[in-house]
Structure formats: C-alpha cells, structure tokens
Specification:
The chain has about 500 residues and is α/β, with parallel strands linked by helices. The chain is built from 21 helices and 11 strands. The strands form 3 sheets. Strands 5-2-1-6-7 form a 5-stranded parallel beta sheet, sandwiched between helices. Helix 10 links the parallel strand 10 (about 265-270) and strand 11 (about 285).
C-alpha cells in the first residue's frame, strides 16, 4: 500500500526525480530559466491556465519563468515556496493525466515584501505582466471607470505606502521603470471581463491623473500595451479528495494541486509585437478581434449551456454530462449551435466555428467534469439576454428562423414557473419580478409567455413585439409543458 500524503516526501526540485514514471514533468533546466513574467493573482485558474502555457514555452525559451505575486493572501507563497514553486496539474478527462508545472520560479506576497515586488517590476529581464484578480479586483465603478471612492483606491491615491490595488501596483512599477530609463511592458489581463485590457489600461491612467501624474500617464500610454483577452477552461476547486488523488498519482505530497479540463483557450489581441510569436507557438491565439471570440463563447458555448440546463432539468437530468447522454437533446443543441448560432458570427482570423462547436460538444460529454444544471440555471434573467436573446434579435432582423433558440428561452420560463409553484428559491437578481410573472401563469401558452415578455428588464420592447418570436416561444412552451416535452426537440 502506498504511504499516506502526510508520510510522503514533499514535491520539490530535489524530490521531483522520485515522481512516478507516468507523471509528465518539465524537460527543461529550471535553474537556467529567467523570470520574464510577473503575474498578479496566482490563484487556481492562473496556475491551471497561463502558467501551463508558460511552462510549455519554457521548453524553447528560458526567459518566460514566472514571479507569482499575491496582492493580499500569503497562502500561495506558503504552499509553493517549500516546493520550489512546483505543483501538479491534473487534466480531467475519461483518462486523466497529471503533470508537474515548473514555470513558477518565485512566489511573493505584496504586503509582506513590497520592495521585492518593486524590484521584480523594474527587472530589465521582465517582459510581461499578467493578472487574474477577478472582476472586483479592478475596483471599477458602474460605468467601468476606476472607482476613486473605493477604500483601496483611496489608499493608492495618497501614494506614500505600498499599493493595494492592481492599478496601484502597475502605476508604481511603471513609474519606477520610467524613472530608471527602462521601457514599458505588455500588461495582459486574464480575467473574464469584456474589454479587460482596455479597462485595466484606463484605470491605470485614471489613477495617474487623479494623483497629478499626467506626464507619467502619457508615457505609459506610449510605452505599455494593454491588449484585450479571452480565457476559457473549467477549473474545479482543489479539495482534500484532489490532494489525496494527486499524492497517489504523483508519489509525492503536493500542498496545493490544481485540476482542470483538458481543453484550454487563451486569446489575446495581436498587440504584443515580438512577444506574440513565442506565445502563439505555445498555443495562444492572436487575433485582431477578441470581441468576436467572446461573442462565439457566449453564443456557442454559453447559449448551449443554458439551453441544456433548462431543457435538461425539464427532462429530469442533473448534470451536463447526463443531459448530453440523451441523443435527442444532444442532437438538438448541436443543430442549434451549427444552424442558428454560427451564422450570427462574423468571419474572424483564428476562429473556426465548426471546429469550436466540436470542441464544445466534446467538453460537454466529459464524464470527469460535473456541471450541475441547477447551477447553470441560476441568474437566467442576466444570462439569457446575451446568450440567446441577442442572437435571436439578429436572426429576426436577418430573416433567419428562431424556433430552436426560442426553445431555451421557453424552457427558462417553464423552469421559473416550476420553481415558483414548488416554493423553491429562484436564484436570480430579478427573483421577485420572476415570481410575480409565475403567479400570473395558468398553463395556457399565450397567457404565460405574455406574463414573462412583460419583463422589460429581460426582453426590452422589441422582442415582445416580434410575431415570429412570440409564436416560436408559445409553440415551444406548449410542447415543453406537455406530457411529451421531447417533442420540442424534434426539428
């Protein structure tokens, strides 16, 4: 019997050679690598995603090792420093694989060692700054500008102590580079925030201007790229089960193993100059239209996800994998993606909708990733307008049919009605309005659909006035509410 994780040697440079033979590991000399990337926010997604790309890149270019900088918590440093920055990544598929990532060469906690962070930001070898700090980490107001009333932003406005915000650290670091005669940097946001690069660049400029540093703001604008990006890969949280599994498969104890699906995507606006070529060689997609990739993700992946969730729940399924095992439902979702959603996308360099749809369907069929439909069904009033209603609106304008996309919308209406009738909570910011609409339902399609279409915050005014959309909704609602709901999928 294998020893328990507590009795196993801990993963490190010294013990890596003891890892089990099937473990994939760096085949480059870690000692010969140079730190060329400073990453703010080295949580699970960064270590599963961007660090994976840089690990791949280090096989051919030793100048892309990572300094992992935590803005607040010391947990990452405490876990990885004794392991020399090494950790394991399990790729979840029917046949999982485990690899050791060696890209992180330094772990810093900004409040603990601020001068070390500043030293890293002014290192001449530094080539990139990347960030995954979640949407709230940008400290933006409702209009998308830097919230100058945010407590941490107010702290950084004074500027007489180490920064607390991402914008503050970037401004301070770039200011020191300017004073030292160094050039700017490429700053790559990796968060799920539309227009993330432009927003981050604007927030740095706004902080500089609010501090009376307009000259520095102009220098940054001329010297620093803030490209927009899109990232995608399902990364379940680390738990004790993963720690035990990783120790078993690795043969070594790992304080913070990471897991994700095998699929991973990183799209960056082609504004990186010479840095773009090595990143592209590592699998990064460079494009002149990141928004097109975001739109494809929303419509092909997220639109299919929502449809699977609401129809799948109506058919009694609990997970995406279970729903995709139903040939009628899986076939319907594929037809919707290929025949209804793909035509709404504009041709874009690097984007192959047919291949992307195939990847999405394979991801949905992954038995090792459990996506509960009830979780996907949450916040439907916020998700449907961009996932289904926007392409429906465009299809109506173009004279294309909307019957299939309308099924997902009708299934959402049925879902809300069932939840309200059962007295179950509706996880949605508009829950009171949804419950009120559900109370008006009688089971008669025209009446019930009208009750939901009255929700102007969801449907605006144009869609309820479109006869083709209303007719498609009523037909789908009627079939889904019958004793044979699969009839709604038979076209």
């Amino acid at each position: 019997m294998d020893p328990s994780p507590a009795l196993q040697p801990r993963l490190s440079d010294l013990t890596l050679a003891q890892a089990r033979p099937q473990v994939l590991r760096p085949d480059y000399d870690r000692a010969a690598t140079r730190i060329g990337v400073a990453h703010f926010g080295p949580g699970a997604f960064h270590r599963a995603h961007q660090a994976f790309y840089f690990d791949r890149l280090l096989h051919s270019d030793p100048g892309f090792a990572i300094s992992a900088i935590s803005l607040h918590s010391d947990e990452v440093r405490a876990a990885l420093e004794p392991q020399d920055g090494l950790y394991s990544l399990t790729e979840r598929e029917a046949e999982p694989s485990l690899r050791v990532i060696g890209a992180i060469r330094e772990t810093l906690t900004a409040p603990r060692t601020p001068e070390a962070v500043f030293a890293r930001l002014v290192d001449p070898d530094l080539r990139l700054v990347t960030a995954t700090v979640t949407e709230k980490g940008y400290c933006l107001g409702p209009a998308g500008d830097l919230d100058l009333d945010h407590p941490q932003v107010r702290h950084d406005l004074v500027g007489d102590a180490p920064p607390r915000t991402l914008a503050g650290w970037l401004l301070a670091g770039l200011g020191r580079r300017h004073a030292s005669g160094l050039g700017g940097l490429a700053v790559v946001s990796c968060d799920n925030l539309s227009g993330n690069g432009a927003r981050l660049g604007r927030s740095v400029a706004q902080l500089a201007e609010a501090r009376g540093e307009a000259d520095l703001a102009r220098w940054i604008a001329g010297q620093t790229a803030f490209p927009d990006t899109m990232v995608d890969s399902i990364t379940p949280a680390t738990d004790d089960g993963l720690r035990a599994e990783a120790a078993e498969r690795l043969g070594l104890a790992d304080a913070w193993p990471i897991q994700r699906e095998r699929f991973t995507q990183w799209v960056i606006a082609d504004e990186l100059g010479p840095l773009g070529q090595p990143l592209a060689a590592a699998g990064v997609i460079l494009t002149d239209n990141v928004a097109a990739f975001e739109r494809a993700k929303l419509r092909l992946l997220n639109g299919a996800h929502s449809t699977l969730a609401y129809v799948g729940l109506r058919l009694g399924y609990e997970s995406v994998f279970e729903a995709m095992a139903d040939p009628a439902l899986a076939g319907f979702v594929e037809r919707m993606a290929r025949q209804d959603m793909a035509p709404s996308l504009s041709p874009t360099r690097g984007l192959d909708p047919a291949a992307y749809i195939g990847q999405i369907l394979a991801r949905f069929r992954n038995p090792a990733i459990v996506h509960r439909l009830i979780q996907i069904a949450a916040d439907g009033s916020q998700k449907l307008p961009v996932r289904l209603l926007a392409p429906i609106r465009e299809a109506l304008t173009a004279g294309r049919p909307v019957a299939r996309p309308a099924v997902g919308v009708a299934a959402w209406m049925q879902f809300v009605r069932r939840q309200a009738a059962a007295g179950a909570a509706i996880a949605d910011p508009l829950a009171p309005a949804l419950e009120a609409a559900a109370r008006r339902c009688t089971g008669e399609p025209a009446n019930d659909v009208a009750a939901f279409l009255d929700l102007a915050a969801v449907f605006d005014r144009d869609l309820p006035a479109a006869p083709a959309f209303r007719a498609a909704l009523e037909a789908a609602y009627d079939r889904l509410g019958s004793g044979q709901p699969r009839a709604a999928l038979s076209f």
